[in-house]
Amino acid sequence: MSTRIQKPRSPMRKEPSQARSRATVDAIVESGARVLGDRGWAGFTTNTVAAVAGISIGSLYQYFPDKLSLVEAIRRRHFDEVLAVLRRATISGLTLRQGVEALVQGMIDAHSINPDLHRVLLDEVPGLEGSRSAHDAFLADYRRCYRDFVTTHRHADPGPSDDLLAQLLSGVVEGVIHNGARKGTLASAELRQELVKMICFYLGGTNRLG
User: Which residues of the chain have pLDDT under 50?
Assistant: First the structure.
């Protein structure tokens, strides 16, 4: 039996096939993210997004049937950014500290571009019915990337399994970053330094920070 994860169904009405249509979709998603962050879920409408993107509402509806499908595209873009951060931090040849700094700074950067947007996504926006497959696929990649990060950077001393360490590490990073996004504290140098220090100590010990 195959264990390959199937690609989740896109929330879009149709996929862009040409450079011009891809640029239009990018503009819609970017404008949607700005409107959602600025106005919150209550003030988020497809008409406003179309106006900000500089396109007609008909052009928006060619790709997104409603505002929930547009929000799902915004979420998926963020998922891709998070996975890219994890993959960059797992590059072989980085010391433990370099990898941890890349992970922490990358996560802070990904959530600092539009912190208001992340607060809205976390606390206000309902889930899209039928999006469970997309979220499950993201979680599978997310856990795998954290496990790869742990396997690459942990010290070789006996201890918990890579899977358990990955679960603990992802929970800590996610909790700190999301809490920082909610409270507006992601720019704190002390928060970044202490998170790096904590992860380095846990994965490598105080005498093995690279």
Answer: 1-9, 206-210
